[in-house]
């Protein structure tokens, strides 16, 4: 072998070794991630599904060390920890941060507006994803929505709620700023409790009725053991979104290809979560009935009244905060635009058909 050939082979070997070392360096990068959910609440499975996908798909560049909610810090502290970079990421439900900005409320859920498919459409194709980035970006974070559940169970307790007239004077546990405002307009009062406290609150009569999540989550939380009545539908949260908050500095340090992998894992988890949650809800509804829980449903007149109250609350919030107005303006614009196709596909349409929406013109006046 000539000296020149030996030099070329040696240089090639050095290049391969350098590339291998570079790959190894990426493999050694690890993130710490926690969530708002303790491991005894089924919603943690959405976080776990995303983490498992990321660790499989991006294993050479990134590994995420996931810790259940409450094991590193209280769930109420994960926002600040992610914002400051104390941890790189955390799973959440955006509505928990509505005290910082009311725009977080519709990013988490809506009262009597979106269903699960609406959130999927809006996030993927109608500008929703960009609004999550704008709102969380104000707090030094990137946000990847990766979970959608359809409407909440409704209200469970030991007092029957068969109409909105039965809400008068009742104390109900529910989450969300806008949700509480609608309930107040209907005569009830909102009680704020952590998810793990709802069971005992129903059992001890601290609240007249309560909710936490979908039927699958609520059944596994033991609600059929303490509630005799279940009022449907879950109008207060017609669908919900969950996702991962990522510290912006940690995100920026990732190669572009790894960032794209995290987004792909989020999209896959979002589709999985909707189907998973609907299967869980179906099986749990059967179990609630087998356990003797009596299910009642509000009639169309009551639901129309709730929609009117919802529209008033949306307009009120829009005029209190421009970002809140911007998010709802995008959502309602989507509903009106999608109606051009949605409403000619009845009864096979995927989204909710609705002809009573808040006025875009009135929202625009507040932006």
Automatic annotation (TrEMBL):
Protein origin, superkingdom: Bacteria
The entry's keywords: Metal-binding, Signal
Signal peptide: 1-27
Residues noted as binding substrate in the record, renumbered to the chain: 152, 173, 211, 237
GO biological process: transmembrane transport
Binding site for Na(+): 212
Keyword Manganese applies: no
Keyword Acyltransferase included in the entry's annotation: no
Coiled coil: none
Gene Ontology CC entries for this record: tripartite ATP-independent periplasmic transporter complex
An example molecular function term from Gene Ontology annotations: metal ion binding
Name recorded for this polypeptide: TRAP transporter substrate-binding protein DctP
Lineage: Bacteria, Pseudomonadati, Pseudomonadota, Gammaproteobacteria, Oceanospirillales
